[in-house]
Amino acid sequence: MSRVLRSVVTGVGGYLPERVVTNAELSTRVDTTDEWIRERTGIRQRYQAADDQPVSDLAVEAARRALVAAGRTPADVDLIIVATTTPDLTFPATAAIVQRKLGCPIGIAFDVQAVCSGFVYALSVADGFVARNRSKCALVIGAETMTRLMDWNDRTTCVLFGDGAGAVVLEPGEGEGTTADRGLLGFALRADGTKQDLLYVDGGVSTNRQTGYLRMQGNQVFRHAVVNISEAVTAAAADAGIEVSSVDWFIPHQANQRILEGVAKRLGIDETKVISTVAEHANTSAASIPLAMAHAVNDGRIKPGQLLLLEAMGGGLTWGACVLRL
Ligand code: ACO
């Protein structure tokens, strides 16, 4: 077997802001109930960043925790990619702000915008640097303040989203070119711009100079989700050269418990292998996969050497999947 360079996840970290917003609290603001939200989505609560807490602050905290887990310091970091749809500013990129706040040396820093699929897209982009030995220590961060995009009069969307951040450290590692290697093993990324109207924000710099509010035809998004995600997962598994049935853990984008279960069922994945944290933090868009991963690494379920399958779908529509061995 020939030696190959792989992008290996060496540390994972997550951060949730202090303030918890329960379903009961939301039911005092809009015409909804705890029962409706739990039954349709599995969500019990979400976190909300403080008014003076921009998304870069959440990203920095998650990144610090991931660096500690990897045994690295900000001085080691030469590449930062932040997946976000709620940046601090229109520019500079949130990644550059994170670089400054962490005190990392001059390196590469930019954002990836693929909404809820952003973390999977960003991992794939980072792989292009790390597995070519162009980065020795990369931070890939999913960070969002989705509550800033909510129309608090729209009960069909405002109950679904929350704020948070998750991060991984990627470092190059030599492998044998087999599925036993540690590192990122396979991807499938997809976008279908014709489905924009199903999920979008009705504001933007070059449209109306507004931030805008998130608009979603939830039941239409739901219809596409299970089919689209299942196809991408199957394609990513084929790209990695593994069987879906051989994965140790399935870590989906945490949007809705019914979608998580629908995808797992369609793919024949046992429910005991599904990491679900949506009840605790709702849909945190690009942050949800690394948050769920950090949670299950920290509670000891996910262990080094195990095979993980990540997937997401979001605005665009975009969707994708990634297979990696920790
Ligand atoms: N509380 C009470 N009733 C509500 C609420 C609420 N919060 N929201 C909607 N309803 C009502 C509707 O008004 C409707 O009432 P009607 O029948 O009198 O018209 C009824 O509930 C059913 O509405 P649906 O939209 O058909 O409900 P559905 O079962 O589809 O559940 C949900 C809605 C939870 C949004 C679901 O469609 C969903 O999860 N969709 C996927 C969303 C998603 O995963 N997005 C991921 C990407 S997010 C991103 O990329 C940023």
| Regions with little confidence, pLDDT below 50 for 5+ residues | none
- Could you please say which CATH topology of the largest domain applies here? Peroxisomal Thiolase, Chain A, domain 1
Report on the biggest sheet: 5 strands, mixed
Total count of helical runs of at least 4 residues: 10
Q: In CATH's first tier, which class of the largest domain applies?
A: Alpha Beta
Strand order of the largest sheet: 1-7-6-4-5
Q: How many discrete domains? A: 2
Number of strands: 13
Mean pLDDT: 97
What is the alpha-carbon Rg in Å?
18 Å
- The CATH homologous superfamily of the largest domain is called Thiolase/Chalcone synthase
Structural class: alpha/beta
Bound molecules: acetyl coenzyme *A
Shape: globular
> Roughly how many Å apart are the termini?
21 Å
Kindly estimate the percentage of residues that lie in beta strands according to DSSP. Answer: 25-35%
Task: Provide a concise account of the structure shown.
Helix content is 32%, strand content 26%. The protein contains ten helices and 13 strands.
Question: Would you mind describing this structure in some detail?
Answer:
The protein is 32% helix and 26% strand. It is globular and about 60 Å long. Helix 3 packs across helix 4 (94-102). It has 2 domains: 4-175, Thiolase/Chalcone synthase (Peroxisomal Thiolase, Chain A, domain 1, 3-Layer(aba) Sandwich), CATH 3.40.47.10; 183-325, Thiolase/Chalcone synthase (Peroxisomal Thiolase, Chain A, domain 1, 3-Layer(aba) Sandwich). The protein has a 5-stranded mixed β-sheet with strand order 1-7-6-4-5, with helices on both faces. The protein starts with a strand and ends with a strand. The chain has 10 helices and 13 strands. The relative contact order is 0.20. The model has no long low-confidence stretch (mean pLDDT 97). With 326 residues, it is α/β, with parallel strands linked by helices. Bound molecules: acetyl coenzyme *A. Acetyl coenzyme *A binds next to helix 2, helix 6 and helix 7.
